[in-house]
């Protein structure tokens, strides 16, 4: 196995075993396995592997692409969602600065049929729903994920 393939296999194993990890922890765990990687190499590997940075309470972790459960959505919403507003068939979610993209990735990976698409900036997510009624359904999914009304 080549160095890159070996390193990416080790990264994949670290992310699976730890249910997500920071870059610092990944580099530390690679070092324990005798694999050295710079931060820029790790960033490139994570991007190539389809890993995404997900906001969690206390910061953010990298996870491999895939669906996230309602607990993870709830944690991200509780930690980073400030408020939301429905406008027609759109839902606008305000987040803490720098957290919209990570939260948006979690929402995108749910593949909810009511969502046509999403757009994320630094602190704002635009969810485009098929209909205004679908916005209500999406809001209910989000409420269910955190066990109460979102702001």
Q: What do you see in this structure?
A:
It is a single chain. Helices cover 47% and strands 23% of the residues. It has helices spanning 3-17, 23-32, 39-49, 70-80, 100-108, 132-146; strands spanning 52-56, 59-63, 81-87, 90-95, 115-120, 124-129. The chain has a four-stranded antiparallel sheet with strand order 3-4-6-5. A two-stranded antiparallel sheet has the order 1-2. The termini are far apart.
Topology:
Layout (H helix, E strand, L loop, with lengths): L2 H15 L5 H10 L6 H11 L2 E5 L2 E5 L6 H11 E7 L2 E6 L4 H9 L6 E6 L3 E6 L2 H15 L5
Antiparallel strand pairs: 1-2, 3-4, 4-6, 5-6
Please report the number of helical segments: 6
Order of helices and strands: HHHEEHEEHEEH
- Helix-strand makeup class: alpha+beta
Helix content: 40-55%
- Taking Cα atoms only, what radius of gyration do you get, to the nearest Å? 17 Å
Distance between the termini: 50 Å
CATH topology category name of the largest domain:
Gyrase A, domain 2
Number of domains: 2
User: What fraction of residues sit in β-strands?
Assistant: 15-25%
Strand arrangement across the biggest beta sheet: 3-4-6-5
Low-confidence blocks of residues: none
Biggest sheet: strands, sense, closure? 4 strands, antiparallel
Number of DSSP E strands:
6
Query: Any idea of the CATH class of the largest domain?
Result: Alpha Beta
Anisotropy-based shape: elongated
Return the average pLDDT rounded to an integer.
Answer: 85
What is the correct CATH architecture of the largest domain? 2-Layer Sandwich
């Amino acid at each position: 196995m080549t160095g890159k393939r070996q390193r990416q296999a080790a990264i994949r194993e670290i992310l699976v075993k730890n249910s997500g990890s920071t870059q610092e922890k990944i580099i530390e765990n690679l070092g324990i396995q005798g694999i050295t990687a710079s931060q820029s190499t790790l960033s490139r590997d994570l991007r190539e592997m389809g890993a995404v940075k997900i906001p969690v309470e206390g910061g953010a972790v990298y996870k491999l692409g895939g669906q996230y459960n309602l607990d993870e959505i709830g944690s991200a919403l509780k930690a980073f969602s400030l408020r939301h507003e429905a406008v027609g068939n759109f839902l606008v979610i305000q987040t803490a600065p720098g957290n919209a993209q990570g939260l948006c990735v979690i929402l995108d990976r749910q593949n909810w049929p009511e969502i046509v698409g999403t757009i994320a900036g630094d602190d704002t997510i635009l969810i485009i729903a098929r209909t205004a009624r679908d916005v209500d359904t999406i809001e209910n999914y989000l409420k269910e994920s955190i066990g109460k009304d979102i702001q």
